[in-house]
Design brief:
Distance between the termini: 34 Å
CATH class: Alpha Beta
Number of strands: 9
Helix content: 25-40%
Structural class: alpha/beta
CATH superfamily: Aldolase class I
Order of helices and strands: HEHEHEHEHHEHEEHHEEH
Largest sheet: 7 strands, parallel
Shape: globular
Number of domains: 1
Mean pLDDT: 92
Strand order of the largest sheet: 1-2-3-4-5-6-8
CATH architecture: Alpha-Beta Barrel
Number of helices: 10
CATH topology: TIM Barrel
Bound molecules: iron/sulfur cluster
């Protein structure tokens, strides 16, 4: 007689991928909120150092955190951000998140001052620094290595696409090879890399979604932020969208692409984000992107429906996500 074991409890949706908030809870023993800090630094893809015009989707205003007002010092932004979060949540420590602009695009003494000022605040548990692959020269890497020895550091590195023709089309002004070198250089110094990707870029096919996960898998990447494509006002993408030269995914297609991507992603990679959204006032399309909760629900529903999990198509069991 064959005995079949009763079905176990089905995993919660957030356990179908290695959710960053769970990893933070394990490391710090508490929930830690991000505070967005604006350094006022620009970008080599905007100021002409590398190119002009910026990425076609870039609308820096969409990244401004609630703590940012033009000209506020880092200390003031930290204080305002902490006060705001504490009106809603009981929390002690925070990550300082340098999101908009390219936050290593300045002379090293300038960068040193910004990050030292931030770490001088005893409530800061770590730094998350957004930058580009072409702004990580040896002196910057030396500084980051030193910071990494003092705090919990993540470098947030935009890849967006693994295909150079697509990167050209979105005016990214760097190649996939440059991303690869930058990720390897950071890893040599034991600095954690969080890769940013956009699914459904113009010129990409459904097969490219899976190839993009494969590209990430062979690199020393420890975290990922997965985004849908959003058209913001006053961007080159807005013009293309209004002229009808680009198409956007609907929510169902994005949820399916996101699930495909996760199924092909290494299970040790921490998933830090699954959507992109901006304020309604500056969002042109798609409408569904404004509702973050609905986007998350659609992805979670798709994971449940397929009984899918991160790394499943690579042959990993679901318990690889908790080991
Ligand atoms: S690299 Fe970042 S900041 Fe620079 S143009 Fe592109 S999206 Fe904007």
């Amino acid at each position: 007689m064959t005995l079949s074991s009763p079905p176990g409890p089905s995993p919660k949706t957030s356990e179908r991928y290695r959710a960053f908030h769970r990893e933070v809870q394990k490391t710090f023993g508490e929930r830690i909120f991000r505070i967005t800090i604006n350094t006022g630094l620009t970008c080599p893809n905007i100021d002409g150092t590398r190119a002009k015009g910026g990425c076609t989707f870039c609308q820096d205003a969409s990244y401004l955190g609630l703590s940012f007002q033009e000209g506020l010092s880092v200390e003031k932004q930290l204080q305002t951000g902490m006060e705001y979060v504490r009106t809603r949540h009981q929390t002690g420590r925070f990550f300082a998140y340098f999101q908009n602009g390219t936050n290593t695009h300045a002379p090293v003494p300038v960068l040193k001052k910004i990050y030292n000022q931030t770490l001088a605040n005893s409530n800061i548990a770590g730094l998350m620094i957004g930058t580009r692959a072409d702004c990580l020269g040896p002196e910057v890497l030396d500084l980051l290595e030193e910071l990494n020895g003092r705090t919990y550091l993540w470098m947030e590195l935009g890849l967006q696409s693994h295909k150079n023709d697509v990167l050209k089309r979105i005016n990214r002004a760097h190649t996939a090879g440059e991303f690869e070198s930058a990720a390897k250089n950071l890893d040599k110094r034991k600095i954690k890399v969080c890769a940013h990707v956009i699914l459904g870029l113009p010129g990409e096919t459904p097969a490219d979604t899976i190839d993009k996960a494969r590209f990430i898998n062979q690199l020393p990447v420890a975290g990922i932020k997965i985004h849908n494509l959003v058209v913001f006002k006053k961007t080159a993408l807005e013009k293309q969208y209004r002229e009808g030269t680009i198409a956007l995914q609907d929510l169902k297609t994005y949820a399916s692409a996101c699930t495909d991507f996760l199924e092909h992603l290494r299970p040790d990679i921490m998933v830090q984000r699954l959507n992109a959204h901006g304020p309604r006032e500056i969002t042109v399309a798609p409408d569904w992107s404004i509702n973050k909760m609905a986007t998350m629900n659609a992805i979670h529903d798709e994971l449940e429906k397929r009984d899918a999990w991160q790394g499943k198509k690579l042959g990993y069991e679901i318990n690889a996500l908790t080991s």
